[in-house]
Amino acid sequence: MAEDKKSLEDLGAALAAKTGDEAPVATATASETPVEAAAISEPVELPEPKIDAQGRAYATGRRKDAVARVWIKPGNGKITVNGREFEKYFARPALRMVIAQPSEAAERKDSYDVVCTVSGGGLSGQAGALRHGISRALINFEPALRPVLKKGGFLTRDAREVERKKYGRAKARRSFQFSKR
Fold first, then answer.
1. pTM over the 0.90 mark
2. 118: how many CB neighbours lie within 10 A of its CB?
3. 44-95, pLDDT tens digit by residue?
C-alpha cells in the first residue's frame, strides 16, 4: 500500500513538473486507483441542456414493441398521452405508478408538463416506454439529474422481448400434447 501511495505522489509530482503547477492536493486512499484519485480533484462538466425553440426537451423511450415520443416543458405536472389525459389512457393504477416513478425520483413531479405519443405493443409496454422516455427527456432538460435517474435504473432500456414461436412446438417452448395411442 505504501508503494501505491508513493507511486501516486510521484505521478502527481510528474504532472506538476509537466504543467508548471503545484502538486495536486487530493490524496487517494489505498482502495482508490490513480484514475479515481484524479477524478476526485477535477470538477465535472455537465453537458448542455438540449432544449428546442419552443422550450421543450425531446426523447424517445422504448419497451417491448412500444415506442414513446416524449416532449417535456416547464409546467404544473400535466401528462398528455396521444391527446388524452394519462389517467384515462392508463386506467390501471400500477401503470400510472410506473409512469410517475422518474419524476418522483428526481423530485420534479409538479415541475414539468409531458406531452407524448405512444404506439405499438400493449398498455404495459407503452407505460414502460413512456417511463423510459420521460427519464431521458428529464436528462435532456436538466443534465444534473442523470446520477439520480441512473441510480434508480430509469435510463436502462428493458431489452426483454417476446420469444418467437418455433416449428414443432405449440408456442415458443410448449410442446404439443403427448398422446399415448
1. no
2. 23
3. 788 888 999 999 999 999 999 999 999 999 999 999 999 999 999 999 999 9
